[in-house]
Amino acid sequence: MSLPQEQPVNPGEISGIRQLDGFWLWVPRVATLALTLLAIDYLFNLGLFTVVTAVESQFFYTVVALMLPLVFVLWPAFAKASRSTVPWYDILLFLFAVSVCGFFVFNAEQILDSGWEYDAPDYAIVMSFLLWGVILEAARRAGGWPIGIIVGFASLYPIFADVMPGPIQGFPSSPAQTAIYHAMSRESVMGIPLQAFANLVIGFLLFGVALQQTGGGKFFINLAFALLGHVRGGPAKVAVFSSGLMGSMSGSVITNVLTTGVLSIPAMRRVGFGRSYAAGVEACASTGGVLMPPVMGATAFIMASFLNIPYGTIALAAVVPSFLYFMGLFIQIDAYAARHELEGLPADELPSLRQTLKEGWYFIFVFVLLIWLLFFLRREAIAPFYATALLLVINQVLPYQRWGWKEVKDFFSSAGKLFAELIAILAGVGLLVGALSVTGMSGTIANDLIFLAGGNTLVLLFMGAATSFILGIGMTVTAAYIFLAVALAPALINGGGMDPLAVHLFILYWGMLSFITPPVALGAFAAASVAGARAMETGFQAMKLGSVIYFIPFLFVLNPALILQGSWDEILVVLSQAIVGVALIAGGMQGYLLGIGNMSLYRVLQWPIRLALIAGGMLLAIPGGGPVPLTNLELTMISAVLIVPALALVWWSNRSEKQAAM
């Protein structure tokens, strides 16, 4: 086999992370090893390290103490700062952060027993201010200036809450009370985001890193090439398949683009796809991967904590929406390939399916174990540890990807970077959530939003979509989701009477859209850098290819049957309508419909036909009733008026073309 090769892009160059060496290279590794051992002891209740795992809050403080100081070593203070050496001021900040966090680890039991959250001694108040400052700087470095500014101003809000304008006025707190609340309460830094990380996320991040380091990415892309590389537009379909699987594991759009894109994008280019189109396909596939079960990134686990439901329930609910998204993407690629007569790669240049499965069967086996533990045994917290252990054992037994000492070191280095980044962002967003909580704003924002929407559920949904998208531009998806879960979700659930799980998934989906939507489109821009394409052009291609994802959240939030909430007959009817609707929209976007033919044979008729199919597909897919003023039957009849004549015209024009060619 001779697949296209391209030099991989270094994620560190894009994320701005510092490349460590010498002593400092070992600091994240040792900290990650310590966190892994403590998490196993805590979650499996082994009782080996009770000095820090016996009390829950002490374990949470220990997680922060191990990971937060690493941010000052891994991320430079400024864009122009050195990325090869750790300057003296970052060493001091690292040691300072260790000392401040260590104070709370040491005093965790005292905080709990003596109620310091309400009345702390003076020295504890000082340390609370210092922890507050350390978290703000760490969040700025790991998450960027937008998160630093938003979290910084929001965390100060309780001090000035009483002088704010009417809608955002709240109960004030003194600076000392605010600092104590941020550092010691279970509603701020130590709130739901951090608790979800400690209880659920650690194991899944370790599993994702282990999967990548043992060759999981190579296996999935080889499997995709073996299955789909030879078909029409094969390399693009390979990108959808492989990026969907790897994105689900990594939970990061950018990482996924840089991992699978270096193979899929050159392969797409080779069979005739344009640079921006190939990059757009990879960006859309990588974005969708983060929304696909069984693992959906850290945000889904935080969602489980917010809703107080098993993670398996969320993963199951996400099956149909992610299927609809990838189906729409797949149909668009096939239609584009059909219109432009783009074939697959020659069979002799593709990997052998038999050899691929022989060398990587255990990746599928580990996936099955993980799904069994998640969905049938409901062991979300410990499932990834079992899966990771099995993966590593089989990997060492088989001769193909065995780890040596270098691979072990790389594993802990990669995991440490992920842990440090996520802890900094979650602790920072915890400050924001704590500020809303202590002032009472988390309850009143919902009422204000309902008032602004005039009690109209559809208006409230559009407001929610716009807010989620805008926050997704300036913040990470996890940060944007947490803020909206506190501020917006109650308005949609209580004011709109909507299903809580559907609302939270709606927020997550719309927060993700900034990865493929200009002017930001970080996922598309990362793919453009791999493809050598123009960034903005790639963004618009990704937006067009991922078009169905813009309305899928409205489908399941208006009718939770699409997230498997309801009777089976209702689920089947709504799902059937959605599938046909998505197929028509995808075909209309690309100007080709499987089984019918090319819509672009007559220029005069092309756009009326395509627009009719897109509009008809939307009307067919949208569930009637409830907030929608039309019934299902009425929507279906209107869609039929648009769809049937358009399909008849396409069929007639293609039949006439064939007869003329005979």
Describe the overall structure.
- This protein has 662 residues and is mainly alpha-helical.
- The chain folds into 3 domains: 11-187, no CATH class; 194-404, no CATH class; 567-662, no CATH class.
- 73% of the residues lie in helices and 1% in strands.
- The protein is built from 32 helices and 2 strands.
- The protein has a two-stranded antiparallel sheet.
- A hairpin with a 3-residue loop joins strand 1 (592-593) and strand 2.
- Helix 11 runs antiparallel to helix 16 (298-307) and helix 19 (353-376) packs antiparallel against helix 20 (383-397).
- The protein is globular.
- The protein starts with 10 loop residues before the first helix and ends with a helix.
- The model is unreliable at 4-14 (pLDDT under 50).
Gist of the model:
The chain is built from 32 helices and 2 strands. The chain is mainly α and 662 residues long. The protein has a two-stranded antiparallel sheet.
Shape: globular
Number of strands: 2
Q: How many H/I helices?
A: 32
Taking the alpha carbons of the first and last residues, their distance comes to 39 Å
Can you tell me the number of structural domains? 3
Give the neighbour order of strands across the main sheet.
Answer: 1-2
Query: Which whole number gives the mean pLDDT?
Result: 87
* Poorly predicted runs: 4-14
Helix content: over 70%
Percent of sequence in beta strands: under 5%
Radius of gyration: 26 Å
Secondary-structure class: mainly alpha
Main beta-sheet annotation: 2 strands, antiparallel
